[in-house]
Amino acid sequence: MFRPGIPLPGTHAEEEQPRPVEDARQPTAAERVRTLAQSSVSALLTIPGAAQAGPDPAAGIPEARAVTPGGDVIVLVAADSVEARVCAYAQDDDLAAVMEITDVAPVSVPHRVRGRAWIAGWLTPVRGDERAACARLLAEAAPSAPVAGSSRQMLRLEVGEAYVDDLWGAEEVEPDAFADASPDPLAAHEAELLQHLAAAHAEQVRALCACQGWERAAPLALDRFGLRVRGWNAAGACLDTRFDFAEPVASVAGLRHAMHSLFARGG
């Protein structure tokens, strides 16, 4: 199986991350990877065996990324980056690469790294007639990002396999499943929504977990199916509790109604 640098199950750095056994509706592993791939959270693109010349803190960090309808990941990198240079001289479909995406909670909680996803595949330059369409995708995904040109290069990562290790668990994802999946409809607004809940509704969030006796609680993650809250005490012990919405939500407007209902029934 093609696995250039994807870690095996059990090697995740966040092994202390609370993972309660839950009987809850949840996004599939493919949806979770697709959500992270199309998000703005930190990503690192590496080519096994390709060495970076000199120290560069931005090495391997795409300036923007997007996913095509067919499930390829388009990344924008500096034209003089090792990724662009190696890709330009490689034979098509011969250059193996791995993109690691790190998801960090946008609010202050213990164990802030919520998960990681790895997407491995083959890297090629975006050429010819595809350039305009890929540039539009990047502009839609990251409106403030630089545009492709003489100083920047668009690369295509054809997905060979993917792997996610997050709050829901660890699981492999096949390329077809990744291509068919959709990102969570709340993903683009999740950070802002969680920060708002933590700042303006802290007591209501804590009230959801009152029966568990935690000294502190904060909203940790939000998706169309529900809200995850992390509670902890002075000794550092913590546990996540999941609160399902009555129905999956498809928009921020639907979320407002779902959260009102959740707070009204106390979880």
From TrEMBL:
Residues 1-28 are annotated as: Disordered. Gene3D superfamilies: PNP-oxidase-like. Residues 191-261 form the DUF2470 domain. This is DUF2470 domain-containing protein. Residues 12-25 have a biased composition (Basic and acidic residues). It comes from Streptomyces tubbatahanensis.
